[in-house]
Amino acid sequence: MKKGLGVILWAAVSVVAAFSLAGIALNRGESINSIWLVLAAACTFLLGFRFYAKFISLRVMKLDDNRATPAERLRNGHDFEPTNKWILFGHHFAAIAGPGPLVGPVLAAQFGYLPGTLWIIIGAVLAGAVQDFVILFASMRRNGKSLGEMAREEVGKIGGVTALVTVLLIMVIILAVIALVVVNALKGSPWGAFTVAATMPIAIFMGLYLRFWRPGKVLETSVIGFGLVVAAIFGGQAVSHSPALAPLFTLSGVALALAVIVYGFFASALPVWLLLAPRDYLSTFVKLGVVLMLGVGILFIRPDLQMPAFTRFTDGTGPVFAGKIFPFCFITIACGAVSGFHSLISSGTTPKMIGKEWHAWPIGYGSMLLEGFVAIMATIAACVLQPGVYFAVNSPAGIVGGTPDAAVATISSWGFPVSVADMQGLATDVGEATLFHRTGGAPSLALGMAHIFASSGGGRAILAFWYHFAIMFEALFILTLIDAGTRVGRFMLQDALGHVWKPLGRTSWMPGVIATSAAVVCAWGYFLYQGVRDPLGGINSLWPLFGISNQLLATVALCVATTIIIKMHGARYAWITVTPLCWLVVVTFTAGLQKIFSPLPRLGFLARARELTSALESGQVAAGKVAETQTLIFNERLDAVVCGIFLVLVAAIVLDSLRVWVGVLRGTREARVTETPFVMSKLRPEEI
Amino acid sequence: MNRLRAFGRIVLAILRELADENAYRRHLAAHGRAHSRREWQRFSEERLRAKFVRPRCC
Fold it and tell me: What are the C-alpha distances in Å from A30 to residues A23, A27, A467?
């Protein structure tokens, strides 16, 4: 009876998934309700979780609750601690959910709502969640080893070195690109700049409160911090109306970039408890709260999508970033569909806290599906905007024209009507001077979120509050990522340089700390500065680089996962990880080669360098712009080199893995599985 | 109602885990120590040092 009901229930879920997917895929010419995207994603994710992930758990991993996990065997009350699966689910999800699944889908909305939605749904089920799950399983069976350690042991030295170099490079690019997102959201916005600046003294106050007045009361401190941040949003409104204060907080892109660079340096060198940790606690809670609010808001108001299924920019001429739908849709949306960075989390804290092996199923696979759901909500938030507004906000001046009249004329000529009055009205509603040329995705996401929140109650009267609340939310956890990332980069650099000269490796030696912090900040700061000065908006160059580097890390993770599966079962189940691996290799190589060698100056780094060189040589560049143009040429060539390094790394890890796979399958190489031996679990379910 | 309460308890436990408050309790239990400002500072420094050497997700 119960089994029969289960069959009927899952059949119903399958039917709803099929109808919703068909509905969103076949609809043309009419606006579609966002609930269809929610249903398509939710039902497909449920099916993937129940059937595909369970198949992998049973047949490939052979999860066994009788086998003691590292959390039980090595329990020490610190890193290794059996933890309730739902608590660990929340912990793991909070760790993997960054700005990527919010910003990427917003940028990819330039192709229309359909490509990004389908990639998120299919990619999360068949690639992203599989990668996270298999790496979590592999690390759990190896005492919580990191991806780099597993790459070295399972694939070889090249795999280990590739993982290390990739992580360092990806950190530099990601910090630059997310800093650019914040800079573009705050430039010329005294309200936003004041609110975000205020979060720094608030975080320091929280740090002191937590350390000296109420030690251990993190939740209480975070509630106080949240209250102060909300007060800062209202303070920002007052500042924006003040003739004396508004100019102080009305900053250019370059000024903001320098401020973020200086901030990154100090935040990474200051004691962690003072600024970084309290800010991290606060941003985690705000992030989870806002994601929940967005989900509830979408279900409550069920807005219609204004963006068509496909736009004309699938041909590669999009203003937000250049490049055709294949491969650039799949590079732009990394987090939300498949993100290599997750493999670092899946082989970090989480495997050391899993109490029973079967908990890896909801934690490893389920958390990624939830992140996919966040990406779907970001897609909806971007696509509820009128397309004309979306493109006016996200298009750089270098593409649509520097004046409002030129921008609306260009955008309207593309078939997305928008007027200067519309844009001015919207800017006034959200308390901004202008919303033109706010590239990077954050402002349009904030607009979409504000629209959804305000429609749930309060209407236009509180649109400005919600817009700045959303900007504060995005900036808060992006800045947390910047200071934490700079610190991590510093440690990695110190670790590497310590082999060259020992004092540099000591984290207590101040000159070493300052020098390595400065080196990391300069590395990402250079790319940030380059992005801010780029007439094409910076996102056009940096976001694809970030996407390629992230997918490169996913390639490393999937190579490790495939090697482990082949060593366990031969070729029988290798398709589970080889399929997404092949896709990622094709996508990464195609995108990388196009970014380097495309003859189109907007797309190819070298083509743009040639165009600028030829303009310089033929005297078309004004005398005052010569130095700037030379820097642009250098930057384009530098981006081409970085992209080339990524491709070489992809080729190295794939070829090295192939060598191992062929050896194992032919029997010329030992298929030694490096799992820890079986130990019977004594942990009772009620203990966790 | 009981299920709602259980759900609330799980949510609160997740928040405490994210806030490191659960980890602090485990630390006190594992070392048989009582809560004090000095103890929190010792735990917090060790915890945060380990936390902020790992790459963060994008």
Answer: 11, 7, 28
Report chain B residues whose CB lies below 8 A from the CB of A76.
Answer: 30
Q: Could you list the residue range(s) of the whole structural domain that residue A466 is in?
A: 7-74+90-187+251-301+321-396+437-666
- At residue A406, the 3 state secondary structure works out as helix
B17 and A342 in contact by Cβ < 8 A?
no
Residue A687 lies in a domain: no
Q: pLDDT of A620-647, one tens digit each?
A: 999 889 999 999 999 999 999 999 999 9
Asked if residue A140 belongs to a domain, the reply is: yes
pLDDT at A490: 86
Please say whether the beta carbons of A181 and A482 come within 8 A: no
- Residue A348 resides in a domain: yes
At a CB cut-off of 8 Å and minimum separation 6, what does A142 contact? Answer: A149, A150, A153, A674, A675, A676
B19·A212 Cβ contact <8 A:
no
Does some domain include residue A627?
A: yes
**Gyration radius from chain A CA atoms:** 25
The domain that contains A121 carries what CATH number?
1.20.1740
Q: Is the pLDDT of residue A214 over 80?
A: yes
For residue A406, count other CB atoms closer than 10 A to its CB.
13
| Boundaries of every domain in chain B | 2-51
Overall number of domains in chain A:
1
